[in-house]
Design a protein that fits this description.
312 residues; alpha/beta; D-Maltodextrin-Binding Protein, domain 2; seven-stranded mixed beta sheet; five-stranded mixed beta sheet; 12 strands
Amino acid sequence: MNGEHSRARFLAVVAGGVASPLRVAAQQAELTTLRVTAVPNDDVTPLLYAQQSGLLRKAGIEVQLTRNTSGAAIAAAVAGGSFDIGLASMMALITGHAHGLPFLMVAPSLLALAGDKSTEMVVLDDSPIRTPRDLAGKVLATASIRDESWLATKSFVDAAGADSETVKFVEIPQAAVPAALEQKRIDAGMLISPTLDRAMATGHFRTLGNPLEAIAKRWLGAAWFSLASYATQNRDLVDRFARAMLAATTYANTLSPKRPRSSSRSPASIRQRRRDCTVRRAPNTSMRVTSSPRWITLHATRSSSARSPRKN
């Protein structure tokens, strides 16, 4: 790719494919409800496909998917027992761990790579802000204080030679950032596809770069997770969910980043579901599945049933 990389999505799951035919036959008689929550960014697309294609039902699972506003809110909801599994940024999971919450990573989701264009710092087209250095002393949006977008934005400003301590952060859901910019309640905000795509299509905004690259050129950005106690008590269910997600993500990874969003490779029902959930595939996004651990606990020790991480 001529030295350029785009963001890759990968899931770590149990070795092997989806559930065996005998297990599937038994599970089709009765579905187990799994309460799942996620922010409707494009990384939730494999879950939508798993729902619409029947992969989850074949695994004996009925997912109740609830939209959320940030990784921090998802971490709190899972910790409080409102949901069984969530998709959250690693920053939210690390913060939870630091506060003693026993989170367990069921499957990694996003690998952020340099060159990705599906995440950008956005300002109004007529804004006097021309470079990240100009963000010093400005009012910037973040989904949650001390979350991934907050950390990335601070790093973005500091890397430009400005002082991020002079920045004032305002918590605003990502979907509301474009309106907040046009109302001049904020000076800039980080957007992720599909919100970024819709905002740029208006011609009212321009970008300053990808703040995630200020953290690292390659790093794990998000993961599916649960409470360790839930995964231990429902090991077979969690394994089946992970296997179904592997199959769904493998399909998503076959989609060329150059193929139109209305590609015939994506069933019409999935395309409609993506629109309903405001989830679309970023045009410059490529994805792949890589090998990784079975379950990862965020504590120093791991469950005796977990396999050792494989080296990529």
